[in-house]
Amino acid sequence: MLFQTVKSEIVSHLSYIVASKGEAFVVAPRRDTDVYVEIAQGWGAQIKHVFETHRNEDYVIGSIELARITGAKVHHGSGLPWKYGETLRDGEEFKVGLLKVVALHTPGHSPDSSCYALYDSEVGDKPVLVFTGDTLFVGDVGRTDFLGPENTAMMSGKLYDGIHGKLLPLGDGVVVFPAHGFGSVCGGSISEREISTLGAERAMNPMLGLTREEFIERKVGERHETSPYFKMMEKYNLEGPPTPAHLPTPPALKPSEFKAAKAKGTQIIDTRAPPAFGGAHIEGSYSLPPTRLSNAGWVIPIENEALLVVDDAKALDFAVKNLYRMGYTRSAGYLAGGLEAWYKEGNGLAKVDIATCQGLREMMKTEKPVVVDVRRYSEWDEGHIEDAVHIYLGRLPERLGEIPEGRPVVLQCKTGTRSSFAASILLKAGRKNVYNLLGGIDAWKKLGYPLVKD
Amino acid sequence: MLFQTVKSEIVSHLSYIVASKGEAFVVAPRRDTDVYVEIAQGWGAQIKHVFETHRNEDYVIGSIELARITGAKVHHGSGLPWKYGETLRDGEEFKVGLLKVVALHTPGHSPDSSCYALYDSEVGDKPVLVFTGDTLFVGDVGRTDFLGPENTAMMSGKLYDGIHGKLLPLGDGVVVFPAHGFGSVCGGSISEREISTLGAERAMNPMLGLTREEFIERKVGERHETSPYFKMMEKYNLEGPPTPAHLPTPPALKPSEFKAAKAKGTQIIDTRAPPAFGGAHIEGSYSLPPTRLSNAGWVIPIENEALLVVDDAKALDFAVKNLYRMGYTRSAGYLAGGLEAWYKEGNGLAKVDIATCQGLREMMKTEKPVVVDVRRYSEWDEGHIEDAVHIYLGRLPERLGEIPEGRPVVLQCKTGTRSSFAASILLKAGRKNVYNLLGGIDAWKKLGYPLVKD
Amino acid sequence: MLFQTVKSEIVSHLSYIVASKGEAFVVAPRRDTDVYVEIAQGWGAQIKHVFETHRNEDYVIGSIELARITGAKVHHGSGLPWKYGETLRDGEEFKVGLLKVVALHTPGHSPDSSCYALYDSEVGDKPVLVFTGDTLFVGDVGRTDFLGPENTAMMSGKLYDGIHGKLLPLGDGVVVFPAHGFGSVCGGSISEREISTLGAERAMNPMLGLTREEFIERKVGERHETSPYFKMMEKYNLEGPPTPAHLPTPPALKPSEFKAAKAKGTQIIDTRAPPAFGGAHIEGSYSLPPTRLSNAGWVIPIENEALLVVDDAKALDFAVKNLYRMGYTRSAGYLAGGLEAWYKEGNGLAKVDIATCQGLREMMKTEKPVVVDVRRYSEWDEGHIEDAVHIYLGRLPERLGEIPEGRPVVLQCKTGTRSSFAASILLKAGRKNVYNLLGGIDAWKKLGYPLVKD
Amino acid sequence: MLFQTVKSEIVSHLSYIVASKGEAFVVAPRRDTDVYVEIAQGWGAQIKHVFETHRNEDYVIGSIELARITGAKVHHGSGLPWKYGETLRDGEEFKVGLLKVVALHTPGHSPDSSCYALYDSEVGDKPVLVFTGDTLFVGDVGRTDFLGPENTAMMSGKLYDGIHGKLLPLGDGVVVFPAHGFGSVCGGSISEREISTLGAERAMNPMLGLTREEFIERKVGERHETSPYFKMMEKYNLEGPPTPAHLPTPPALKPSEFKAAKAKGTQIIDTRAPPAFGGAHIEGSYSLPPTRLSNAGWVIPIENEALLVVDDAKALDFAVKNLYRMGYTRSAGYLAGGLEAWYKEGNGLAKVDIATCQGLREMMKTEKPVVVDVRRYSEWDEGHIEDAVHIYLGRLPERLGEIPEGRPVVLQCKTGTRSSFAASILLKAGRKNVYNLLGGIDAWKKLGYPLVKD
Is residue A150 a contact partner of residue A128, using CB atoms and an 8 Å limit? Predict the structure, then answer.
């Protein structure tokens, strides 16, 4: 058995390719599928099957393209109106070389959620691993709120049943391979560790020790945010994404060309780090560093093209690939030569003032700054700076009115990355006296400054 | 000025990408064009122009695809009915950043042959380099026989006039960048060295010291071979090649699948080295090692798919890319796991007996072997083994009747690679007692054995 | 937690690097240690500890060099006279970032064998994975014969106690990371699959369902072969390997230089595939293709240098690295330009006749060939060709006299790779009429030909 | 003939490796020599000779190590007390495969300066290219001031004689391969274009049209800056550099470890771009972006170790390699996790205010800022901002007193990169109200703002 994990950075998406005796299958492929074809070729194997774990809301599925190239069959769970692929029966079995794959219908995160248990017929009749999709993560379970608050309890119950009725009975010694890792929005608190088993999860996953009632209550109480791009994503994934089915080649733009595109209203994504964005940027840009690039979905419709400001060719490649995986099919281009090319030609610059926690404490004594905490609800609930205002960053554009004018505004998150994005939203809206707190709550805590809870 | 040569192995094709101030141009791009787009992106430059040196006979041009991706304009010389791109005026000028490109119409190799002189306006008004296409090579000049023997003298005269009237006057200190290097069939004896100037060629290229009459006489006297795939190539290049405009993904075939495809008549290309092919191969395969893969054009129509037997993933990649560049748009697949997978399943094997020069000399004393020399005319003319028969390898299939039966046949070329292909042609035709002379004429000479000339 | 497996090909050695919060540790590093340093650097982590699983017999440990570069501490189990590093107490604990490593003394394969259980303190107090060294493999357990037949029963009992008393009690849901994978000589029948858990092994590893008595009996009954290079390896690993502590740079030799080195008695390793070796090779070479390169240890003392004949730069790199890992510290050089360079200069060639199973059956009707089966005892015991002679390949040089002269000798293994090595040993000894059976027992079985058991 | 240029970024150093028939030579190798060994191995060639173009002042020579690994002989010109290698006779010839190398003694830049003409004996008796070291560049000639002002005229005369007496007579059609490209401090105005010939230089290099007297006068009038690290470099290159002869492995430091090293006085090099350094940096750091990293030689003795703050693993690798090539043999480590790791722990930050040209013009109306132009003399002489003070950046530490206090100080160079370094020097010296002009003179000119000349 040959096995490889393929990780996609910004949405912490984990997909898998497995082969035995010249036959291969892929679980939950991403939109740009060359990687699977190359791995299979390196193994001398043909991809025969693609197994979907569910429709997916946060990235575009590449199954149609992968099937076109390789001739593989696409399989998905029942419960949603997929326009392509074949609908699985619960318990349906597939032979791939010496391996056996058994599909398990485990709705909860999505009505069509499916897990896949893998058996190695060379050694015995027990499963050795299971692909758990967004049903079970290392340290967490999937969200159950996508069908709306009225259905969350019902879906949570189904999720509980799937985990306890179908997954855990596979046995403690079964290795777990989920569809997301640390940092995904599809689970609240996925572990940074990617190696686990059903036994380890049963023993240490805080959600798995609860009774069915406790589990549902906990899930109903969760407050998740849903990026507006998810809606389009669901459509793409059920019906097939727009063409072309390959990564865009963003044109290299000179400053004059970049300026012309900007003048037509094309939005700018600047992926440089927060200190760089703070130091100097093109007015009107969004600050979206690589680790938080998926937040673009809150402010730029995925049907649109965007302009890119990046550090180097590697950063460009990262941005183009990851935006494409989120559904941005085309690119308006990038600023060739980076920001230096822009300012060497005498073009204007904007900046975000940088604050440190020490500086903020000083400022608090005199200037009464408004601290806006843009983290998730679950983070806010664990403790925040006194008198801070909580507005989740994705909601900032519609809730700007809640931030009082005439006082310095200090944007704050966990470390200073999301707050850089938040600061860029405020600047774009014309606000002045805007600070980004570098270090965020992490630094605040390290310094022993006080936190309060609501 | 940024400058990069892009070399394609099997047809020794040299293409170029040059940039200045964010603008770039490409000279004579190959069919798979990602490389130019990636280089331009790394430089932060946009490809604005594609300059063709001529229609080309031995590889497929990638200009249409490159123009589609980048928006570049395609330019070609006058004299042939191109169905795309723009026709150049002799002397037409282009500004690319701080560079100036001047087109020179230099028919001779082809009616539309063009050279391009490059000026660096930062430093002065003299040309610094010239792209010479198939007009002038390092150590040789282009073939002039493509319009048929009745036109060779006329085309040779034009070539002479272009070189002496347009190229050499640019000045000795102009660096030469031709479209082919060592090993190309587009020039008889191109130097292995790739660095030269008009001055060095004027002084040392044996063709450039001749008078016009001598030059024409020499060119008319040359005997070149024209692979049958050239005809289709010309059509592709004037009209645009077949889609898809990207490299094929050959399916990984199990021995049983490979055997089924073979049974339908699909031809097999085995790119392993001659000793390996000699040791064991699948019956009916053509022996086409990487350095001589372009000889596939003699036996397999480029509209067809072929099956591949290769050493490893790198060799597969090489074969697929280079066959695609020659015009083979699709691939029937490759034997996954290589020849070992084939024989592990108990499938039959064929072999070619290996001869050494020492062995051949012994054999000559007793068995009267037929030595068939399959080299080019120009190589044969420089000396050959006594009593050898000369049949150029591409002509073997139609001239098999000239090889007497009932005696051992020893195929011979320069080193043993082309003769491995030749041996595979004979075996395919049912001949027995076929040897490949490893070492060829090179070894024969090293050993001091006698050569004769006709 | 960041985790990466580093695999070394020829001895199927698996080593590991793990990090948390900027601190890292390595388990069982190989001799060329750059890879660990680069991974750690990519993670922004410092290697603080190196954990040895045991002395090792089949590859050279890189711990001294790794410690020198990084300042890491080396830890090993008790029971052998290590001249460097620190001796562990059973149960000794180490904190690495948020992780806890607990050393478990599990003698049996070697007196100092140690396993390491890993706990993730972020999530709980159960181990999540265990490094099992050569104590427990996927599908097998370690050899117990290294202390000689008189101690095998005793060591087997210890191994049983370690597995059942220390490993399995960690819990079914603990992922297993052994020091060897499929193909290692340190376990007889390690699974090709590399993913497993204590639960999966408990349920499906054939050795784990036995009673202590059955286990010991089974282990005592095993017949393993011990390559002579193991002895030197043990010395290197207890005392530190010879310098230099970096990969050799083999000189590129022209045929004349290669010949001169050969004339001085330097042995030649030819890593090309069996059909290529069969087709043509330099007289006196050993046929040692990449997958079986470790068999060099049977015929060339590791203090010696060897000459290399390889396909290309990648094959050269593979050979040099893997020989270095086995203990060959220096290289005499490689034939630049490969075998083609050799025969182009008119140098002589030798060959091995290739046999197929069909051909062998025909031959058996008339010529009474001697079939020599060179596989391991355990393979031979599962069935062999009637009237075949069994001589394990490593024993061939000393048992040549058992092979009758005057008849064709057909060397046979599983697929034709080891038998190519065996054939080269016979040729070197001056035997004539030597065949290599391509396809081996695998092909024989596929064709439905009969097998017998002793 | 096989030929490859090896470029080292920060000092724009060009070295070369050339091979023919299995033999190779290297011209002017850099300190980390793996690249030459790998190229030679890929070509199947042995490096037989290393040719030095001169002692070198700006980077460390790798010849001793390269000779140790490959057995190559090192050759250098006469006139300096080299402690290794062999001293060339003017006109000495070497055969390398089919090539002939002729050494030309051309003192001027350095007493031992040597050029190497290359002849391809396959084609004729004219040279095809020449390695010109620091004697002749594309668009410029070498500096002649290293022996002190009293010797500049004499050395300039020698340089003139070497160029006109030995190089140009080789012929217009000889390709030029110098030891430095665009951006080197060894020539004032080397062209960005790297392709040239003796003919093109004769026609267009502004220094080559001068008479001997004009040439000497011009050279004597040049004002070059000499970084203090050059002295040590000369010693290293004549005597051999300190060991170890391989790249350092900088330890990954946690913020606390980094802080401890800083507290001991270890200097910090921050290679992030000027906007990022301006936005936030660790107090006391030097701003040394990759393109200007060699300026480290002005402030940090090369015997010292430095601490690094970089964007990512690629930037770390760049910094370590290029500092090593300059002579920094060891590294104190880098801030693991980058600046984010630093501020997440609540550590303090400093910043540089960013100015644009528009902003500076506004500021000039009210605040009387001191504009400090830190460019080279030759740049300053071409025009500067009115009332600006000229202090070459390397001289800033010793001339800080010339900058009036109490007013804003705006550092200015060509684009904003060197002025970021200059700003960091002022901040380190305790100056407040320090601005970096992003865009520099380039932007100033683009905006049409006035320049004055002295």
Answer: no
CATH number, residue A35: 3.60.15.10
> Residues in chain B whose beta carbon is closer than 8 A to a beta carbon of chain A?
22, 37, 40-42, 44-46, 69-71, 249, 251-254, 313, 316, 336-338, 341
Helix H or strand E encompassing A120: strand A114-120
φ and ψ of A80, to 5 deg: -140, 150
User: What CATH number has the domain bearing residue B335?
Assistant: 3.40.250.10
Place of tokens 């320090």: D434
The amino acid sitting at A328 is Y
**D134 and D217 inside one domain:** yes
Q: What value, to the nearest 5°, has the Cα angle with vertex A185 and ends A182 and A187? A: 70
Nearest CB to A343 within list D277, D343, D438: D438
Contact A128 C172 (CB under 8 A): no
The minimal CB distance from A439 to the residues D343, D439, D444 is found for D343
Same domain, C217 and C159: yes
Q: How many CB atoms lie within 10 A of CB B24?
A: 27
Give the type of residue at A454. Answer: D
**A286: Cβ contacts below 8 Å, ≥ 6 apart:** A267, A268, A269, A270, A296, A299, A300, A421, A424, A425, A428
Chains B, C: CB pairs < 8 Å: 125
H/E run at residue D278: helix D274-279
Contact A193 C123 (CB under 8 A): yes
Interface test with A, best of B38, B46, B48, B344 (most A CBs within 10 A): B46
End of a domain among C182, C210, C239? Answer: C239
- The Cα C130–Cα B39 span in angstroms is 46
Please indicate whether, in this complex, the C-beta atoms of A46 and B252 are within 8 angstroms of each other: yes
- Note down pLDDT in tens along chain B; length 454 residues: 999 999 997 778 999 999 999 999 999 999 999 999 999 999 999 999 999 999 999 899 999 999 999 999 999 999 999 999 999 999 999 999 999 999 999 999 999 999 999 999 888 899 999 999 999 999 999 999 999 999 999 999 999 999 999 999 999 999 999 999 887 766 657 888 899 999 999 999 999 999 999 999 999 999 988 898 888 999 999 999 998 888 999 999 999 999 999 999 999 999 999 999 999 999 999 999 999 999 999 999 999 999 999 999 999 999 999 999 999 999 999 999 999 999 999 999 999 999 999 999 999 999 899 999 999 998 999 999 999 999 999 999 999 999 999 999 999 999 999 999 999 999 999 999 999 999 999 999 999 999 999 8
Instruction: Give the tokens for residue A2.
Output: 């040959």
Nearest-Cα distance to chain C for A192, in Å, is 6
Same domain (yes/no): D292, D413: no
- The answer to whether B62 and B85 have CB atoms below 8 angstroms apart is no
Please tell me whether residues D260 and D325 are part of one structural domain: yes
Q: Which of B280, B357, B442 sits opposite C275 (nearest CB)?
A: B280
Instruction: Tell me which residue range forms the domain holding C413.
Output: 353-446
Give B195's contacts in chain D (Cβ within 8 Å).
Answer: 1, 3, 128-129, 175
